[in-house]
Amino acid sequence: MDTAYLSTPHAVRSSDAKPLVCVRHVSKQFANGTLAVRDVNLHLGAGEFVSLLGPSGCGKSTLLRMIAGLGAPSTGTIEWPTTSHDASGEPERDLGFVFQDPTLMPWATALANVMMPLTLKGVRKSEAQGRAAEMLALVGLKGFEKSYPRELSGGMRMRVSIARGLVLRPKILLMDEPFAALDEITRHRLNDDLLELWWKEKFTAVFVTHSVFESVYLSKRIVVMAARPGRVMADLDVDAPYPRDDLFRTSPEYAHLCRVVSGKLKEAIGS
């Protein structure tokens, strides 16, 4: 069976005519001297599902936060070629962010939590309520609009967080290990639901994970990173078609793909 991947070591693709985000020679060194990320190059195209895969300490979350504008590179640039810029030259990043912890306001209902980005944008209350309710329905939580976080399971709280990240209909959704703390059954279900949302909403997804199995199941591309300092070791195309389901999870093709990615990850860890 032919390999289903194309490796491009620096994760820059000439086929991306108009990428949404261009990460160019980005490094990040913290005040304590730790070099978290070194010379990362990465292009993110419209409609892609890209996983950042690697061991703890390889800079995946640091890179994600810099793309979101939650931290600045020490060297290099992060460009948004198709995005308008404000008066100071800063890009108006059209993105949503889903953290590893749902980070919901405990005193607010699910509906109010999802409404928050709309409220901050100045959307009138009636419209915000309607859009938030629609997004909760899309993530499978119709009927739970008035529930508080303490009344929801871990998986349901994460669904609320995803709904909040998507309520502004962003071009890019950044996800920092959102399912890491969930049990395997819930994680599989949310993987399926996330893919369905991505297919319907047509956003670009950037997904941080430690899991080879999760990355292969979800992604069009897997960017494998090595640690100390964090750097890109391989950029792999996952050629399996969508939609993907339990038949794909148990197929010889999926097992083969997981073996290939596991091999690349071992190379990265040993480098």
Automatic annotation (TrEMBL):
Domain ABC transporter intervals: 21-252
Keywords recorded for this protein, A-Z: ATP-binding, Nucleotide-binding, Transport
GO function term, MF aspect, one: ATP binding
SUPFAM superfamilies in the cross-refs: P-loop containing nucleoside triphosphate hydrolases (SSF52540)
A Pfam family hit: ABC_tran
Name listed for the protein in its UniProt record: Nitrate/sulfonate/bicarbonate ABC transporter ATP-binding protein
Organism domain of life: Bacteria
Keyword Nucleotide-binding: yes
Biological source species: Bosea vaviloviae
InterPro entries named in the record: AAA+_ATPase (IPR003593), ABC_transporter-like_ATP-bd (IPR003439), ABC_transporter-like_CS (IPR017871), ABC_transporter_ATP-bind (IPR050166), P-loop_NTPase (IPR027417)
The family this protein is said to belong to: Belongs to the ABC transporter superfamily.
